[in-house]
Amino acid sequence: MIKIENVHVSFGEFKALQQINCAINEKDFILILGHNGAGKSTLLDTVSGRIIPTQGKIFRNNTDITTLSEAKRSQFISRVFQNTHMGSVATMTVAENLAMATLKGKIAGFKSAIKNFPEYIVEETLKPLNLRLEEHLNTPIGKLSGGQRQIITIVMATLCDPDILLLDEPTAALDPVSTENLLQFVHNFTKQRKMATMMITHDEQRAKFLANRTWVLQKGFLQTE
Ligand SMILES: Nc1ncnc2c1ncn2[C@@H]1O[C@H](COP(=O)(O)OP(=O)(O)OP(=O)(O)O)[C@@H](O)[C@H]1O
């Protein structure tokens, strides 16, 4: 589905990624491991289009998307950041944030998206989670707990029905119980939606039940299984 061919990313003289060759296939769940500064976020940034490689090519279903903008890629690649503040607007309610997420990749329609809140999200996604998130639709998202906000952010990231979900340490700010809940949610959700997922984690032991592949980055070089 996504093929990365001999990709290099440099920041000035610094080589953050070198000779990256890999493929992400349908329904893959790939754990990305590696020490601090190994290049994990840079790899996700390169897949999402936030960073354009210095060298090499990226293909989606044999189409070259190496220079396709992040905004255009967001229709089929969704990124969730470690810092939930980057994925949602704290002062807007949960419902407003969810409505806004349905517009991803489009410019127009914000007012009408908020007015016509998509109820299917409540019925199909929030209620089955059994976390009572549907009772917080009118709560500003900044008032939710870290775990609740992260779950809503992941739901938001999937509303445009992407082929690939990119998760950057989604449990970094969570306590052990919330971590288990979130990982279970990610497991069920990505399986149900048949979505390929790349997830950065520093907690391989907890997360490995999710994955069919584990990749390790070391000083910008990638070892794939
Ligand atoms: N915009 C940039 N300009 C210069 N150097 C950068 C930039 N972005 C990342 N780097 C460097 O590239 C290297 C890889 O960074 P990256 O954020 O990908 O690491 P990481 O594996 O995600 O680390 P962590 O586990 O700490 O989040 C680091 O040495 C970092 O300082």
From TrEMBL:
InterPro entries, alphabetized: AAA+_ATPase, ABC_transporter-like_ATP-bd, Metal_Ion_Import_ABC, P-loop_NTPase
Entry keyword ATP-binding: yes
Highest rank taxon of the organism: Bacteria
GO MF, one annotated term: ATP binding
Keyword Transport part of the UniProt annotation: yes
Keywords: ATP-binding, Nucleotide-binding, Transport
Residue span(s) of domain ABC transporter: 2-225
Similarity-based family: Belongs to the ABC transporter superfamily.
UniProt name for this protein: ATP-binding cassette domain-containing protein
Source organism (scientific name): Silvanigrella paludirubra
